[in-house]
Amino acid sequence: xxxxxxxLFAGPxxxxxxxxxxxxxxxxxxxxxAACATRVAAxxxxxxxxxxxxxTAPLAGKVSGLIASPxxxxxxxxxxRAGTDDIAxxxxxxxxxxxxHDTRSILQGACSDHRSLLVVEPLRFALATRPDWxxxxxxxxxxxxxxxxxxxxxxxxxxxxxxxxNAADHGIPQTRRRAFLLASTAKQVxxxxxxxxxxxxxxxxxxxxxxxxxxxxxxxxxPAGDVVTRGEHxxxxxxxxxxxxxxxxxxxxxxxxxxVGNRPSATRRPIDAxxxxxxxxxxxxxxxxxxxxxTPVRRxxxxxxxxxQDFSAQYPWTGSRTKQFEQIGNAVPPGxxxxxxxxxxxxxxxxxxxxx
Length: 356
Prior knowledge:
By secondary structure, the protein is α/β, with parallel strands linked by helices. Helices cover 25% and strands 19% of the residues. Helix 1 crosses helix 10. The longest helix is centred in the middle third of the chain and has 13 residues, at 143-155.
């Protein structure tokens, strides 16, 4: 019987791109039409469905790996955080599922945000399919619920790890922090070793040290000036190297900074640093470049956002401009997904001990 890797709340394909870099494929379950279209355009197998309504019984025995990134808006600091009022109900739903009782429909009526209980869906699928391994991702506020899920998985014989990873520590040009849960029945799981650090490390007797964090300038800029593209304007315009990609910034931008948000406390980061976490909801039009005087230059482009999220500039984002940015901001950076997935996919150096 063929067994598959399934990806719940698959979005536009961050986990799928990470798997692709390791030579694996998955089937993504996703309800958003634009995200499904992006996945299909990128060549990723996709089922458009409501994960919470999808029957798990037909999947029993057919799943080797389970990936999930439940919607985070209900718990995110960028949203209203209504989900924080629902944490106790989510814990109850996890315990009920572990005891064989599906009380989601009852508990949902008491939730402040109807999306809160989506965080328990990975356990529902794991209990029904018993995959060899599990990899989950969410905003840091969900870490206590991941700890709870991990305790249940350990009772079923899984080795687990739960913690928060910074994407910049794994070569992504963005200091995005997310909680992860890793579990395996075949090996002792551990977090991926970081490859980058805020301060680069020298070579030692044990090999090269960690490299410096990748900056926005590293990812986006080219040497200054070969061609000026003015479009319909008569002055100004953008400079692009004739041999470089059209999305790349040039040396003139090296004094710029990226501001995310329109509040006085909005994060502002110089271009020679990694980007802050890219958030595009109501602040979409305020994720913008500013010059060294603090004057707005222009908004961040789709291609630039794609690169800063570790996708290619040519990734086939579909839907409206708003939907494209939404997909980028919600996606797992593929390079981070690759680092995490190696922890559960690579052969075990230390197989999981089986209790007598």
